[in-house]
Each structure stands twice: as structure tokens, then as C-alpha cells.
Amino acid sequence: MNTEAEITTKGNILIVDDTQDNLRVLSSILIEYGYKVRVAINGNLALKGVEASSPDLILLDINMPEMNGYEVCQKLKSSEKHRDIPIIFLSSLDETNDKVKAFKFGGVDYITKPIEIEEVLVRIENHLTIGRLQQQLKKQNALLQESEASQRQKSEDLQLALRNLQETQAQLVQSEKMSALGQVVAGIAHEINNPITFLSGNLNQLTQYTSNLLILIELYQKALPSLPEDIEKIQEEIDFEFFKSDLPKILTSMNTGANRIRDIVLSLRTFSRLGESECKSVDIHAGLDSTLMILQYRLNESQLRSAIQVAKEYGSLPLVECWASQVNQVFINILYNAIDALELKFQNNSSFRQNSVVDVPKTAVPTITIRTEIINSQQVAISIADNGIGMTEEVRKCVFDPFFTTKDVGSGKGLGLTICYQIIVDTHGGQISCESTPGLGSILKIVLPIKFLRS
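The structure corresponding to this sequence follows.
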């Protein structure tokens, strides 16, 4: 009989990959860690192997001849006997569309090649544990019919364990998304920074050269009031007087644009905080401004609504000790929700008026108000308010619960505000609260300690 340690760490795994080297390396590592491993070099052999003996988990490559990984997954999920086998895709395809397609076909996870073996082991163990807990949960539910009172607590414990594992997995995906976003943003900022610095420096020099040339031309005009016919003809053709007045304006406009791009690059770098893993003193206002810059495309005017106005009521805040990238993640989640609430209200005013006791005035402007202040010598507060659709008291009480969402299926996992709560309360020892009135809007208030209280 297996011990408890063996139950939670061993499993029967099928690896499907048309590359022999991949099969050999991955299978030898998994065997070393105590797993039973079978291999298949194509989709047809994989399906036959599953039919002969159902594995606990499948590691499935996507790009294979004759039958690709998506087709293999689809056939397995169409079978009632095999549809519950967890399938983890392994692929060198790293586009978002590829990952979305993998999950649509029924994959439970997606690992991009080249793989990190520690990551593969953790994810395999996680999904095997979830599967075993689900099987145990089914057995416990059957026993409940015979002895419901004695078995209820065990079932609840298993459900809680399963929920915690699912929540942890979803949070891992969310953290990876934010990490990937930070890397992309930092990369874009780095790539733009060098050429825009080059342009800015040369524009300043070009402006000076142009000014000197115009002065020189004016001196020539004074010294030679009577110009040769060919020069006068060219002056008329190019409309020299207009050219002389418009050229400095063009250079000023170009310089303004270059400065704007440089400000955007600075905001991108501030938002990404790539490589800053330690808790350090940061400017909260800089984090808010960089997040707003990232979301500017959603704040702009659209065909369905006017531009969202952002009112900044910033107080005089000291530097706050925190994990800046995590706090920026909180800001972007809250602002995303605020923008969604504004679009629900202002993109369809007539429909909203018919279903609400609060009318939307024709002159109403979608607005987000960000207020910061010092509460006392030890804490600061950041409030993000919107005049969007608001929420009922029942919804407000659940906004920080895991997997709770009012959005349509596929629009959100219900983890955004849960992660915000964990970052602010669990990680930083702060507070986060929500106030809302249906039809009038919502306020999310964050309280952070100025000095991080290390345990």
C-alpha cells in the first residue's frame, strides 16, 4: 500500500513529442523524481496508449506531423472515458493566441519551451494533486449519502483544499501575466529610449543651426537689398517669408513630440519596475501616473462615449516603503474595473436609465478621481473613485472574494480585487475597502503603512 508521501508525489505520465531528444531528457528526469513515464512520438500512438492504459496526466507537444497536439486534445476531451485527464501543453509557440487556443481545446496548463524543469515539476505535482483531490471528493460525496453528518467536515476540507489550489494556480497565472507585461513594457522603453535621446539631442542642435542660418539670411538681405532675378524667383516659389516664420514652429512641434515620447518612456520604466524585487521607498504618485499612462488608450474618447476625465487630487505624500511592482498591479486592477464600470454606464445611457432609479444627466462626464493624503504619521491613503454604474450592497460585500465576478463569462476570472486584497493586506499590512452606490459610482480606498513593518 502506498504511503501518504507517495500518493501526493507519484503519478503515471504520458509524454507526447515527435522529438526523440525531448522525450529522452524529459522522461529520464521525471523517472528520477519517482514518476512512471510512457512516451509516444505522434498523436495516433498517443491515443492508442491512452486507450490501453489511462495516464494520470499528459504532457503534449503541439507541432507534430499528421495530427497536431490540438487535435489529440480534442479527441481525448470528446471521450467521456478520458476527458478528465489533465493535459499540459509543451510548445515553443509563445503567442497569446496559441495559449488561448490550447486552453479552448481543453488544456489545463501551458508551458513554453525551452522548459524550466523546476516549473514543470511544480505544475505536474499541482495538477496531479488537484486530480487526486477531485477523486477523493467524489468518493466522499458518495459516502455522504450513507453517513452525511460524519462525512460533511471531510468533504468541506477537501473542497477548501481544492479551492485553495485552484486559487493559487490562478494567481500564479495572473502574476506571470503581470511579470510578462512588465518585461514587455521595460523592453519597449529600453528600445525607444536610445533613438529618442538621439533625436532630442539633434533637434536641439538643429534648432540652433536653423536660428543661426535665418539670422545669416536676414543679414544678407539687409546687405543686398537688390537681389539677382534668379534668387528673387526662388524666394517667391518657396514663399520664403512663410518658410522663415513656419520653420521654427515645426522644430518646436517636433521637440514637443520628442519630449512627450521621452515622458512616456519614463512612465513605462516606472510602471515596469523590472528587477526591483526588494521592498524600497518609492513615490506613490509616480506609480499612479505611470499606470494612467499605460491605460491612456482606454481613457481616450471612443465612438460610444466621451473621453474619461481623470481628476488628480494629490496630497503631499512622503516616500512609502513597498514592493512597487505589486502596488502598481493593484492600481492597474482597480483602474481597469473603474473604466469598465464607466463604460457600462456611459456607453448605453438610455438602457441604463430604463433599468435604474438614477438617471444619467446628458451633461454627465465619465470621471475617475484619484485622491491621496496622509492619514497620520504612519499611514497614507489612496482613493480611486468613479462615477460609473456602481454596485449593490450584495455585490459590494463580495468584491474581494476569490472568483467572484459580475462580468460576462470569459471577461474576467474574478481574481483582480482578490489579488489586490492580498497584496495590500497580507503582503504590506495595509487596508483596502470599497464603498458604492448603484448608479452613482464606487470608491476603492487603500491604506498603506509609510514604513513597511517587517515581521
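The CA atoms of residues 10 and 35 lie 5 Å apart.
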